[in-house]
Amino acid sequence: MINTAPNHKHTYDEQGRMTCCTLEEKIYTEAGAEQLLHKKKTIDSGQDKVQLQAHSSVWKQYLPAIISFVMLLIGIALDNYFKPSFFTNYVRLAWYAIAYLPVGLPVIKEGWEASLKKEFFTEFTLMVLATMGAFAIGQYPEGVAVMLFYAVGELFQKAAVNKAKNNIKALLDVRPSSASVLRNNKYEEIKPEEVEIGETIQIKAGEKIPLDGEMLSEGSSFNTAALTGESKPKSIYKGAQVLAGMLNLDKVIELKVTKKFADSSLARILEMVQNATARKAKTELLIRKFAKIYTPIVFFLAVALVVVPYFVLSNYVFNDWLYRALIFLVISCPCALVISIPLGYFGGIGAASRNGILFKGSNYLELMTKINTVVMDKTGTLTAGVFKVQAIVTNGMDKTDFIKTLAALESKSTHPIAKAIAEYEKNETQTYQATEIEEISGHGLKGNVNGKEVLAGNTKLLKKYNITYDAAIDEIIESIVVVAIGNQYTGYVLIADEVKEDAQEAIRQMHLNGIKQTIMLSGDKNSITQKVAKQIGIDTAFGDLLPENKVQKVEELKQDKTKIIAFVGDGINDAPVLALSDVGIAMGAMGSDAAIETANVVIQTDQPLKIVTAIKIGKATRSIVIQNIILAFAVKAIVLVLGAGGLATMWEAVFADVGVALLAILNAVRIQRMKF
């Protein structure tokens, strides 16, 4: 039996493993499974009361439509089957008027408020005019039906939007309510927002990580699905970064906080998704502009449909032509378009989030479908960016002294190669101190170690300072760090990086999904760049590039107006190119904050194959939006012609408006169920 009691206290052994129950049981408890497993128990907690109120409010939303629907059915039955003598004239009018009010009053209120803002031609205005007109000519059931089905359409819209929002919220809103922080030699439970950088926090097995931090414990396993969409657990070890929102699966761990909650990866993701709907796709903006022009046009056409025949026809009957005009108004309401298109894009953003891809706006979701050229950085994007020292070669200097001197300088840099060298030396007992550090962009580092000037970087750095070195170094393909101490060449360190597992498949899939050209730009040696490009199938590659050279290459590509360019990168020096490209894509898990902030799309898993997934989601969203536009216009056009010719009734008009809107909504939410 699973222990789901909310007051259950978990116990742990010396290794931090739970001794009282299984991890599954703890997660059930954290999720509040008591209510789910024991539905018949009395609901008395404050949280349950809130949930009960939420369910009650949902029920209240549907109550007006239910009342109107029941009264409409009774009215139709009395009209056509029972035909009692009292159900005529004012009694009949009063019955249908009462049936109309529950669904009609909110729409009348919306139309009135819009009119006060000088927005006279809205869907609310069209519905009110059409239904009031139906009542004016005695078509009471049709008047109630039009407003009822419009209200039902609105409820479907709200339900679909809420589902899309809840999908994103369930994926991302995993913010822990408290953090266990070490203060005064004991752990205190406080709000994550109150924890400072540098403080130590403790996370037990089954608990969520409240803040970004550096692992102080030896290691643990984490569920990263909330951030990356990946269900496979990830092992993280001492010294590595752990991100807020991950779920600790293994044992009690300690982290040193590296970012405040407001700056954490989780907070950043939440903000991106919440702001994504503010940036509209061109199609969405076009439809909104179209609706503003289209609605007044159809209103005046409806007026013309009543007035013009009076001057043309000898057997003109006002009620007949007014009825046709009312049908015209109902059909022409742009609900299906203004509801389903934003919902389609919102669903696409939600589907992308579930796959570990964050779009900062539906405009970028649409732009992904037009990309034909993908430009990529190498290190950290197509390669793992996890370097290891493979060999140390010195020019007469003691290797231990050499690596200590180099590590002292490199420890001040955040570059992956610098980190690899610093990591290699960290177990040595004696350490050197570096001062006056200067980073020379695209070349390397310059500093002072033990009173001697030290240069560490690529061969361009030594050439810049006119220092001669062994010419055979230029023939080495692998990544190397060349070192000069006191203006004398001293040796080099050989560094290795690995191509990501899915890099080759990502390039292949890009070509299959409409990408005409793949290009790799790297600051690494050209020989290494060309080797990697050949290995994974890149079309064109350029090495030995400074950050400004990357910008120059992309500017050259943009001169060809037929190219729609996406740039994929992860480093601080990639930010200018990300901003310059049509779509900037950042590798989010390992990427720098500057790259992530500048990018339009963030891939949380650091997998190149997710670029293809982003393209597929963009195309699927675009396809659904186009289907809805065609469906809405085709059905409306047919019924408009039939209505104007007197061949369609108000019931066909209801289908052309509300029915098409419902079909479009159902089509739009399909993307949330698709597999990519």
From TrEMBL:
Regions that span the bilayer: 62-78, 90-108, 293-313, 325-346, 624-644, 650-669
The P-type ATPase A domain, residue ranges: 175-274
Domain of life, per lineage: Bacteria
Pfam families (alphabetical): E1-E2_ATPase (PF00122), Hydrolase (PF00702)
Catalyzed reactions per annotation: Zn(2+)(in) + ATP + H2O = Zn(2+)(out) + ADP + phosphate + H(+)
Enzyme nomenclature, EC number: 7.2.2.12
Top EC class of this enzyme: translocase
InterPro entries documented for this protein: ATPase_P-typ_cyto_dom_N (IPR023299), ATPase_P-typ_P_site (IPR018303), ATPase_P-typ_TM_dom_sf (IPR023298), ATPase_P-typ_transduc_dom_A_sf (IPR008250), ATPase_P-type_domA (IPR059000), Cation_Transport_ATPase_IB (IPR051014), HAD-like_sf (IPR036412), HAD_sf (IPR023214)
Keywords on record: ATP-binding, Cell membrane, Membrane, Metal-binding, Nucleotide-binding, Translocase, Transmembrane, Transmembrane helix
Chief location category: membrane
The keyword Zinc appears for this protein: no
Cellular compartments annotated: Cell membrane; Membrane
Record NCBIfam families: ATPase-IB2_Cd (TIGR01512), ATPase-IB_hvy (TIGR01525), ATPase_P-type (TIGR01494)
Family of the protein in this entry: Belongs to the cation transport ATPase (P-type) (TC 3.A.3) family. Type IB subfamily.
Protein name per its UniProtKB record: P-type Zn(2+) transporter
Organism: Aquirufa aurantiipilula
